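Posting this for the archive.
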Amino acid sequence: MKKTVLAAAALALAAAAPAHAANVTVTLSVSAARYARTGAACTLSVPAGANGIAVLDAAVAQGCLVSYDTVTYPGFGTFVTCLDQVCGNATAGSVGTYWNMYENGVSTGYGVDAFSAASGDDLGFAYKVYCFAAVCPPDLG
């Protein structure tokens, strides 16, 4: 009888304990085109549901990236501004460069903090040029 009560108590405690998120495999890919060396895609293990900041932290810890920087815009999210010291640059206000984020090959409209890791995801960043000027310099792109 005593063993049954102890076993029931152990089962109740196990059921009440919070579940730990299983790790998932995510690929980080970076493309800087002609602006900088592009590294090979890096396969990372992060907790399921981890945001993009956690993925970038894992990439730094594993040596896939040396560093990254972000900026947070209240109401819009956190966006990557630099990867391995290659930074977006607004050269004349209407012309510049930035890091565009992709989730599974699709350009996102949200910050890296809104990414939620699932098994097999690809979190990508591409260094892009923008030009909102009336006449854009011919060497952009």
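The chain is about 20% helix and 40% strand. The chain has a mean pLDDT of 82.
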